[in-house]
Amino acid sequence: MGGVDAQNGETSCSFLLQQLQQIWDEVGETDEDRDKMLLQIDQECLDVYNRKVDQAVKSRAHLLQALGDAKVEFSRLLSALGEKTYDGIPEKNSGSIKEQLAAIAPALEKLWKQKDERVKEFLDVQSQIEKISSEIAGTSEQVESPKVDESDLSLKKLDEFHAQLQDLQKEKSERLHQVLELVSTIHDLCAVLSIDFFSTVNEVHPSLNDSTGVQSKSISNDTLSSLARTVLALEEDKKQRLQKLQELATQLIDLWNLMDTTEEERSLFDHVTCNISASVDGVSIPGALALDLIEQAEVEVERLDHLKASRMKEIAFKKQAVLEEILVCAHIEIDSEASQHKIMELIDSRNIEPTDLLVDMDNQIVKAKEEADSRKEILDKVEKWMAACEEESWLEDYNRDQNRYNASRGAHLNLKRAEKARILVGKIPALVDSLIAKTRAWEQDRDTIFTYDGVPLLAMLDEYMMLRQDREEEKRRLRDQKKFHEQIKEQETPFGSTPSAARPLGTKKVVGPRANGSGNRRLSLNSHQNGSRSTTKDGKRDLSRMVAPVNYVAISKDDADSHISGTEHIPSTP
């Protein structure tokens, strides 16, 4: 900021600052306050400069925008006129912005004038085209002034319009061909849908009736568009009818399969089911999609639905029987009575669609089959184990028979069976170990307890092994006791005394899962899995808590662990 002499009535920054210093001295302002005021004065000065700079920037931006718009307009005009270059374009791209604007203005004026002349040429040729087109359309209305596409005013486009004038006669022939094709398509669609053809085409235009000559038929844009819309509407109607008919056909087949309908009854609706997988274009037989045919199929579906409701319980019980057979064969416990009661409640309450109920039962059957397949290998080993246990039980009885070596009838057969039984019994520990390993792997893979007729299999195997161990200990004890009595007898015999007969001690017998030929395959359980044992008041185990839920393939592992309990090793049949 330059200073000005204060005596001439003007002030400068230095003079004003000097005055301000004098005033501060008189007032007694502190240095800190003076610094703050000076900083404030500097900031205000900067604000003034910034505003001026902003105004200058905006002014420059406006000029640049105007220059850019001019260049864009120049390029647009060149493009519209189909010109790649222009002789009048200024070569000077330097200098100030205002100089550049002044240089491009004359070129723009020339291009605008050239554009106006070209537009007049387009208007002239397009007006002629519109006039001939109105004759082809068969209208006598006043032709409106055509709209010129100012984005393309090139000579090439103008030549195209001139060529179009020569093609109008050819276009008439092409339009007539299109009309005839559309009318033929409408005829075929009306035949399939059983719709009156003549009334349909008369709604489009009366000249389309077969009574008029070919050359007299309307070939206007409205006629072509109306014909195209009619074809689309008929095709959409055909598509919807076919979809409806296919849905009805699917329902009929499902209901027939559900109720075992005879082939004779099904053949009455062959004209419906024959198009169940047909495409829209594949249906061309007259009357194939008539409304009365669809209504007939709807009535039949409704009749079968009412019939299905009355037979639903019978069908549901058949599926339940199939499910129960799968579960029984897989030794999965199921409460048949409760299942049937639940089915009755669901059907009577009508809270579920019968079809949904059957689908749910089909899903249960599929899951039950999958579960049975996953259990097959283990169940086969269980069968082998049970057979071995039966032989073990028979061998125990055979070994206690004092007359087993007598020459009685069939003694040699029993001897051979005993030899085989000893071999089979010797394999039981390895078989049980393999069965335990596979059962645990199965449970870990599914996080579910493997039950056998409602009883956890591992618990059965654990108790069997414990009973077997107890039996071995009992045998050792009896052998020691026998040896002790023999020693006493040897000591007493030299003195002529007769030893007192020792009361025979019975052995603890390991009862296998089929002991005594019982068909019930449950063992009494112990609960080494959870480390606790629970009994009822009379000392017997409560197995009622181990009954599997109705229609349930497996119980969770945590629930089964809490249910396995017992206090003593009491042999029983599983």
Q: What's the arrangement of secondary structure elements?
A:
Layout: H1 13-27, H2 31-81, H3 97-137, H4 155-193, H5 197-204, H6 221-259, H7 263-267, H8 270-273, H9 291-329, H10 336-349, H11 354-400, H12 411-426, H13 428-446, E1 448-449, E2 451-452, E3 455-456, H14 457-492, E4 555-556, H15 557-563
Antiparallel strand pairs: 1-4, 2-3
Helix pairs in contact: 2-3, 3-4, 4-6, 6-9, 9-10, 9-11, 11-12, 11-13, 13-14
Description:
The chain is 66% helix and 1% strand. The chain is mainly alpha-helical and 574 residues long. Helix 2 packs across helix 3, helix 6 packs parallel to helix 9 and helix 11 packs across helix 12. The radius of gyration is 53 Å and the shape is flat. Strand 2 and strand 3 form a beta hairpin. It has a two-stranded antiparallel sheet with strand order 1-4. A two-stranded antiparallel sheet has the order 2-3. The chain contains 15 helices and 4 strands.
Output the keywords.
574 residues; mainly alpha; two-stranded antiparallel ribbon; 4 strands
